[in-house]
Amino acid sequence: MPARRSRRRSGESPALPDGRPAVVAHRGSSELKAEHTLGAYVAALEEGADALECDVRLTADGHLICAHDRDLRRTGSSDGLISTTDLASLDQLDFARWKEDPLPASQRGPWQPPPHGGVELARLDEEQDDLDKVLPLRRLLETVADYPRRVELAIETKHPTRFGGLVEKRLVDLLDDFGWAGVDSPVRVMSFSWVALRRVERLAPDLDVVFLLDSPGEWYRARPLAGRHWIAGPGIKVLRKHPDAVRRIGRSARLHCWVVNTEEDVELCADLGVEALISDRPGQILRYLERDGAGPAPGP
């Protein structure tokens, strides 16, 4: 299928021409909408997000879907694992109801009635229904490809899984269907597993990959194995606790940070030269950046 290609080559910074960092919608506009639903991503695009972030998992019948948890209890209000459930069965679930349900997941059984007097509100139309259903990764890629402006994607593969390296193989195959497995790709692949990133590197050597970090030491241990397209991805807690270490990492590597939801954290990221901010609140972060002109600090 024909697809829109990004003008940015892999390995180049996604920072915008005005010098501000790129704002990446974490699981969509996930503070406002149910995470990983088409509704959350449409909202993020309407808010002006520069990129969309998603986690991916394989279903029992081999489809990549956008989902963080290995089980369905929190977001699908159902028992079972994604890896043992086929796509047709997942398509019968409402993945947005939990966002409105006042009961915590621990008290909400798989068939707990919705909080509307025990009566499910009728859907207005099929399109609205699609916004709340399971989101296959292919559908998200189609949405990005068809959008009238450039939008990038940050796709995280979850590990460990029962499928092992098949997740990365299916992901690269799908990206190749869109012409997005090479140097012109708007996609970067993220993981806490350096093994997973090495798999991606072997399958698609021109793709950017982001090594997600819970501590600075993880970057230094993996750095000898890293290729030229590796990006350091420290969590915001790492920046708060180890700013000097992050600054040192940033002297030789690009920095993408998760999850950045406050003005104070935006300022910290700017001071440390972070080029991409992954946020649950893309619209709010964009408004702050546009108002105050926060951008990466000058290099040493």
From TrEMBL:
It comes from Marmoricola endophyticus. Residues 21-289 form the GP-PDE domain. Residues 1-29 are annotated as: Disordered. GO terms for molecular function: phosphoric diester hydrolase activity. PANTHER family: GLYCEROPHOSPHODIESTER PHOSPHODIESTERASE 1-RELATED, GLYCEROPHOSPHORYL DIESTER PHOSPHODIESTERASE. GO terms for biological process: lipid metabolic process. This is Glycerophosphoryl diester phosphodiesterase. It comes from the Bacteria.
